[in-house]
Amino acid sequence: MWRISLPLVHRFGFKNSMQRKAGVRRILSIGSAVALLVGVAHSPIEAQANARSTPQETAAALPEFERQSYNPAVLHLQFTPLPEGRTTSSGGDAFLDLTLIPSSGNLEGVRVELVIAEFRDQLRDLYVQLSRQDSLDVENPKSPSRQLYALLFEALTPLLERENVSTLLIAADRGLQAVPFAALNDGQHYLGDRYAFSITPSLALTDLGMSGDPGQRRLVLGASEFKGLAALPLVPQELDRIGPDANKDLFLNQEFTPDRFFEKAGESAYNQLHIATHAEFKPGGPNDSQLYSGVGPISMDQLAKLRKERKGVPLDLVVFSACRTALGDANAELGFSGLALQAGARSAVGTLWYVDDVVTSAYFVQMYRYLDQGIPKAEAMQLTRQAFVRNLVRLDGDRVLGVNDQPLLLNLSPSQQRRVSSGVNHPFFWAGIELMGSPW
Questions:
Q1: pLDDT tens track of the chain, all 440 residues?
Q2: Spatial distance between the Cα atoms of 389 and 231, rounded to a whole number of angstroms
Q3: End residue of a domain, out of 205, 232, 262
Q4: Is 197 in the same domain as 244?
Q5: Is 104 contained in some domain?
Q6: Do 187 and 299 belong to one domain?
Q7: 281 and 200, same structural domain?
Q8: The domain boundary residue, chosen from 147, 180, 205
Q9: 386 within domain boundaries
Q10: Are residues 112 and 229 in the same domain?
Q11: Which burial class, exposed, middle or buried, applies to 84 when counting CB atoms under 10 A from its CB (0-12, 13-18, 19+)?
C-alpha cells in the first residue's frame, strides 16, 4: 500500500518570493487569456455537480463542453529520490512534490512519499493490463489504476474540488511522463473522464498564449501502402473524414513525400498538421527515429527545421496518428510529440502504445468534430474519451458510429469488424492517446 504523508499545504517550487509572485502573475495571465478565448463565466455549483455525477448518470449522458465551468490549472509533479541507502521513517525512498497553480493564483502543494520499486511495479502492471485488455479492477483499491491515482491525485482532490478545476496542464518530471494518466481511477471515475488535461515536460517549452486563427487551414498527410510494412487500409478514410474538404489540403501515399511534408508544414497558412502512418522511435534520439511517408522514411531530426521555416508562426496542433509517438527514451522522453513541441508546435497529440488502427482512426474523426466546433483541445479529447467510456462509439454492421450515431468509419472488412465487435470502452482503446503542450 502506498505511504502518503499528511498533506502539507504550503508554497514551494520557487526560489524566492519574487519568483513566486512572478509565477502567480503568469498563471493569472493564463486564466485571463483562456477566459477571453472561450468566454468563460465560471459556475462553481455546476462544476461541482458535474464532477460528482454518479456512474449511472454518466453512462446516460452525452458528452458536452460546459463553457461556464471551464477553469484551467497547472499541476507540477516533481520527483525527488533520496540518496542511495536512505529512507524516510516510514520506508519511502523518494518524494513527489505536487504543486497546484490554479487560475486564481493561490499556489498550494502536497508532498507524497513513495517507494520507487512499488511505483515501478504498479506502472508495469497497469501497462500489462492495458496491453492485454484485462479488467483494470477499479473496484479494488489495491489495483494498479487505483494505487497510482491515490499516489498522484488523492491528496490533491480537496484542492482540485475547492478550486473547481476542470482542466489540467500537467508538468511532469522525467519518468512520470510515461504514466497513462487517463487510465487512473478513483473508484468512481477515470481521470481522463473527469478532467481534460495535457502533459508537458517543461512549462518553458509550452506556449501558454491563445490559439491562432481557427479559420486557418489543416494539412493532412498519410500513407496506407508500404514496402515491407503492414498496410493501413483505414488511413484514406481517416484523412478524408477529419474535417471538411474546404478547410484542408490532403496528400496521400505517393503524394506524401518528405519534401512535400517539410515544404507544406513550413507554410504559415496551416495551423494544424495531421499525419497518419507508421512510426518507429529508436533509442538514441531523433536521428534514428522515423515516420514513413508514401515513398520512404522521414528522419525526425529534421522536425527542428520547422521552427525556422515558419518564421515565428507556430503550428497550433500536430497530430501523430501512429503507434508509440508519445513515448521515447531518456534523450527524447515524449517521442515524436515532444520533438514537435521542440520544433515550435503549441500542442501535439501522440500515442503511448501500439494502438488499434480501427479505433484510432475513429477516435481522431470524433476528436476533430469537437475541435471544429471551437472546443479547446484538451476538452475535445476529454469528450472523445467520454464517448468511448459511455459506449457511444460502437460497431453497427460494417460501420463505426460515434456521438449521436454519426458515422465515423464505413465499409469495415470482416477482420476489422471483429477487432471492435466486443466494444471499445476499455481504456486500452482511448487512454493511450495523449495531448502534449498547450491544452487550449
A1: 233 333 333 333 333 444 444 444 444 444 444 344 334 333 333 333 343 344 444 445 799 999 999 999 999 999 999 998 888 888 999 999 999 999 888 899 999 999 999 999 999 999 999 999 999 999 999 999 999 999 999 999 999 999 999 999 999 988 788 899 999 999 999 999 999 999 988 787 787 776 655 557 899 999 999 988 899 999 999 999 999 999 999 999 999 999 999 999 999 899 999 999 998 777 666 677 788 999 999 887 777 788 788 877 889 999 998 775 545 444 444 566 677 787 788 999 988 888 789 999 999 999 999 999 999 999 999 999 999 999 999 999 999 999 999 999 999 999 999 999 999 999 999 999 999 999 99
A2: 29
A3: 205
A4: no
A5: yes
A6: no
A7: no
A8: 205
A9: no
A10: no
A11: exposed
pTM of the model: 0.86
- The reply to whether 177 and 259 lie within a common domain is no
Residue 9 included in any domain: no
Q: Are residues 125 and 241 in the same domain?
A: no
Per the structure, the complete domain to which residue 119 belongs is given by 17-205
Query: Is residue 117 domain-shared with residue 33, that is, in the same domain?
Result: yes
